Amino acid sequence: xxxxxxxxxxxxxxxxxxxxxxxxxxxxxxxxxxxxxxxxxxxxxxxxxxxxxxxxxxxxxxxxxxxxxxxxxxxxxxxxxxxxxxxxxxxxxxxxxxxxxxxxxxxxxxxxxxxxxxxxxxxxxxxxxxxxxxxxxxxxxxxxxxxxxxxxxxxxxxxxxxxxxxxxxxxxxxxxxxxxxxxxxxxxxxxxxxxxxxxxxxxxxxxxxxxxxxxxxxxxxxxxxxxxxxxxxxxxxxxxxxxxxxxxxxxxxxxxxxxxxxxxxxxxxxxxxxxxxxxxxx
Length: 282
Description:
The chain has 7 helices and 2 strands, in the order ββααααααα. By secondary structure, it is an all-alpha fold. The protein has a domain at 93-268: Four Helix Bundle (Hemerythrin (Met), subunit A) (Up-down Bundle). It has a two-stranded antiparallel ribbon. A hairpin with a 2-residue loop joins strand 1 and strand 2 (76-77).
């Protein structure tokens, strides 16, 4: 297999080229044109498809989880239908779009309740199952570790001003470059109780923030930290910071429930049903 790394192939023409099972990582295809191209069985992850135009394509047995807006299929904007159905299937989902301080408190109420149910569900699994990955995604334990990181980054650092709020078990997103002093240890295998103790502390921090939140504060911006780290040392809209946390908590709980269902099905030798995963609009 040939490796093409750090190459600028802008404007290159590929004709009658076989790229079956090829891997593309950090590749820019903006403005590219595809004609008579076979993408059967292809996997796209963290792909930016804004402005995509697809004509005379064959979409069958397609599974897409995405943040969507103005998506037209056969001339129809399907987004309002999808959003309405997701809100119907997930009654707490509209709460993840708060407009005032009280709305953020209600959203956090819902997330505390939902995560409590998910943790009780997870307690029925073995330690090995809680460290089990599904389709290359984070295990349940890794998901909790990532949420600790998200709270440390956006609430404790960006909002509350702690330049280095990290715990050794924090797990940044995979595509984030190493950013000392942010930790990244994919090999450590903490117990569920160890990670839940961290989660309880971080969730209590968010609870204190939203309980004391006013509409005036929500409309403001943060004071930037000056030390390097993640996120970058700059002011952020308070609304953006808190909406980021709601989105992280909502989405990763759904991913966790989805993957726990697969882990359970594997153990029982049966197929797992695929639940609806609804990303809250920003």
